[in-house]
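Issue 218. Parser rejects a valid record. Input:
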Amino acid sequence: MKFFNKAFKAPSYFIFTILLMLSVSQSSLAHDQNAQTAWDKIDSGALVVDVRTAEEFAAGHLKNAINIPFEKIATGLEKRHISKDKSIVVYCRSGRRSGVANETLIKEGYSNTYNGGGYEKLNAHTNK
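Output the parser choked on:
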C-alpha cells in the first residue's frame, strides 16, 4: 500500500512528462505513411528498407528493398555503412513497426528518413 500511495503522489510535472512522451510517441508512429510521397522518394534514389521479419520479407517485398527487422534497424544500417543523411524509406505490414524504426533512426541521428507505411498499400500504389 505504501508504494501505491507514493506512486500517486508523484509531482505533477513528472506525470505531465510521461503523458507528453506517450502522446508524442503515438503521434509520431502514425507520421508519414503517404504512398505517393514514399514512391517519390524511392524513385529519387531512397534506400528502401523492409522492417518486417525475414519470413514476411521472403513472402513478398518491394523491388530493391533490403530487409532489416525493425528492432535491428540502427545496427543493420550501421553494419552496411549507410550514411546518416542518406534518403531512407522504411515500411512494414501496417506502418506500426516502420514507425518505430523511423523513430529509432531519427533518435540515432538519421536526417532523411520516411515511414512509408504498409507493404500492401505501397505495393498497390506502384507506378501510379
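Fixed in the parser; the record now loads. The helical segments are 2-7, 12-29, 35-43, 54-59, 73-79, 96-107, 119-124.
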